[in-house]
Amino acid sequence: METEEAFLKELKDFAPDIILADYNLPSFDGITALAIKQKQYPDVPFILVSGSIGEELAIEAVKMGATDYVLKHRLSRLVPSVHRALREAEDRAKRKQAEEELQRSFKKLQSVLEGIKQAIALTVEVRDPYTAGHQRRVANLACAIAQEMGLPDEQIDEIRTAAVLHDIGKVAVPAEILSKPGRISNHEFDIIKSHPQVSYDILKEVEFPWPIARIVLQHHERMDGSGYPSGLSGKDILLGARILAVADVIEAMSSHRPYRPAHGIDKALQEISQNRNILYNGNMVDACLRLFTERGFKFE
To answer: Residue 200's CB: how many other CB atoms inside 10 A?
Structure first.
């Protein structure tokens, strides 16, 4: 091959299983050929065969991605070197295929799990049509708060999962209480307040990669210890639960409920502002306020 262009054309036309290249080529050298190969076809083995370079340059070629080098005064190494290179290339191809298959299976499993989470969330909404979409909207806002705070993607996935499932415990609350118009009694409110514990009991045996059950259990806890069910305060409340608490109260106050009309988003933002570092974590309140006042966040 006279030129780099001719070399590249040969690679495209013949898709070789292995490349044996001399260092001295008509208008370029073996190192350049190696660089071209690495850019276009990094998985193809490349063996540099030459009698005009020393061991130092040959080792540099290996560092650049050459599979091996064979000096011409030691050509007896060439055949075993080729066999080894082809065997290793085959092994890499099999590993890559297995990894791609595993990735496809993982994505399919993720899709199935996401469907299960949504189905569980829908179970609550079917029983309580007045809060249809509540868990999804809370999840969207909670994730937006987490992103605004600069949290890593994995932690955002944790928060999304907890938010989608946070009210699953309401399946244990009688439907007539959930949809009751007008004021509810203290006894009825105590029943509603049991839903974080029920949610925890439902989710605690699921082997999530995150403490989802505990986040859901704590999403009605408050920074000053006035929340429920355990009266936790400050950093005793998991970070995900503190974010979820802000998102939950914003969505709930801005939406209609059977026992009251919607307060609206302005009233909801006023609630978290007035209770910043009292009921709600200050950093999360600040992030939420920025979303609505500066970023144009809106519920779908």
So the answer is: 19
What's the CATH superfamily of 128-293?
Answer: Hypothetical protein af1432 (1.10.3210.10)
Q: Between 239-254 and 134-148, two packed helices, what is the crossing angle to 10 degrees?
A: 130
* Best CA proximity match to 16, nearest among 26, 8, 24: 8
CB-count burial class (<10 Å; 0-12, 13-18, 19+) for 166: buried
Catalytic residue among 108, 170, 267, 298: 170
Q: Which residue in 263, 256, 268, 262 sits closest to 293, CA to CA?
A: 268
- Residue spans in the chain of domains classed CATH 3.40.50.2300: 4-97
User: Rounded to whole angstroms, how far apart are CA atoms 172 and 142?
Assistant: 25
The pTM (predicted TM-score) of the whole model is 0.67
The phi-psi region of residue 65 (left if phi > 0; otherwise alpha if psi is between -120 and 50; otherwise beta) is left
Q: How many CB atoms lie within 10 A of CB 113?
A: 12
Cα separation of 137 and 157, whole Å? Answer: 15
**231 contacts 196 by C-beta, under 8 angstroms:** no
170 is catalytic: yes
Note the pLDDT tens digit of each residue in 146-187. Answer: 999 999 999 999 999 999 999 999 888 888 887 788 788 899
